[in-house]
Amino acid sequence: MQIGIDSFAAWSVGDDGGAATPAVAMQELVQRVVHAEQCGLDVFGIGEHHRKEFLDSAPAMILAAAASVTKKITLTSAVTVLSAADPVRVFQQFATLDLLSNGRAEMVVGRGSFIESFPLFGLALEDYDDLFAEKLDLLLEIRDNENVWWEGKHRPKLTGQGVYPRPVERADGAKLPIWLGVGGTPASFARAGALGLPLMVAIIGGETHRFRPLVDLYRQAGARAGFAPEQLKVGIHSLGYVAETDEEAAEAFFPGYAKTFGQVGKERGWGGVTRTNFDTLLGPTGALLVGSPENVAEKILRFSEALGGVSRFTFQMDVGALPNAKLLRSIELIGEKVRPVVRRG
After folding, report:
1. Count of CA atoms in the C-beta half-sphere (13 A) of 212
2. DSSP letter for each residue of 122-185
3. Residue 12 has pLDDT above 70, yes or no
4. Which domain covers residue 239, as residue numbers?
5. Residue 307 — pLDDT band, cuts 50, 70, 90?
6. How many domains does the chain have?
7. Can you give the pLDDT at residue 201?
8. Residue 75 burial (10 A CB sphere; 0-12, 13-18, 19+)
9. Contact yes or no for 180/191 (Cβ under 8 A)
10. Distance between CA 8 and CA 264 in Å, rounded?
């Protein structure tokens, strides 16, 4: 099982409690990618948002900067909002990243959980699913063919044009990895299976084991489409933070978590965030991976078993609004104490 970190490039919080400048926050983010590699982690992902509090509107740019100062770690999006992007440009950006990183690029594509990109790029929200399905079809066509013949409703057709550059040719003949990022929509799980794409499930609340029927749906759809079980990988993107003790992790993470989800809750009409609800999510079946290395490692293994086997877990720590020093220490603990236990299984 691979273990990694996902970031939305949220503005860091300095030791004095004030927000860092965007330039400092970006430098700290690249520092965390380097540190993750040094600590033995397998993958680092950068999300995509078009909101003031996040600096990740151009994730391929951030990943390219990280590629120049790393050598081993896999670099991926988390997720690329494909509905609002041109698949040709997305492929070109990640093929370029793949060349810069010598074959370490991947992408996770999805529809995104925020909708700011739709008015920003002049797209109709009622086309939310249709846009994604069509653009995913084109992206996969580009990945599989240097010259592309394709026609759809939302983009001018391609009549044999070449799309360049092409990514690194892998020794095993594998293509540039494209994962499908999903939330809780059954049709999305089934679509990933039918296409034989690895699945990245964002689980940010509730009880993780309740996603088992959806993961089973993915595997069943993949089997019906003729894909072997080993092709149908499942990854989990979880909110998490590791400290020396359970109490230290919870006390550090909760204030930022409450602020972040309180703000999102106001936008979406959710209820307020309470410490009682937070503590419930820290329990044995709750989705949060917040705690000591020992307990977090045990929880990951328990989640993997409950979901029928998981290939990748990534921690999203940004919502805790923690200073860079604490994030670096958490990465160390994940690399030194969580990952070895998980890899032993």
Report:
1. 12
2. T--GGGHHHHHHHHHHHHHHHHH-SEEEE--SSS--EEEEE--------TT-PPPPEEEEE-S-
3. no
4. 2-344
5. very high
6. 1
7. 97
8. buried
9. yes
10. 15
Q: In whole numbers, what is the pLDDT of the chain averaged over residues?
A: 94
Q: Quick one: which H or E segment has residue 221?
A: helix 212-224
Residues paired with 236 in a beta bridge? 201, 313
**Sign of the Cα pseudo-torsion (260, 265, 267, 268, in order):** positive
Peptide bond into 165 cis (omega under 30): yes
Residue 172 CB coordination number (10 Å): 4
In sequence order, what are the beta bridge partners of 110?
Answer: 81
Residue pair 1/342 in contact (Cβ under 8 Å)? The answer is: yes
Instruction: Tell me if 326 sits within 8 A of 33, measured CB to CB.
Output: no
User: What pTM was estimated for this model as a whole?
Assistant: 0.95
Q: Is the dihedral of CA 172, 173, 179, 185 positive or negative?
A: negative
Looking up tokens 């063919």 gives 145
Average pLDDT over residues 317-338: 95
The CATH number linked to 143 is 3.20.20.30
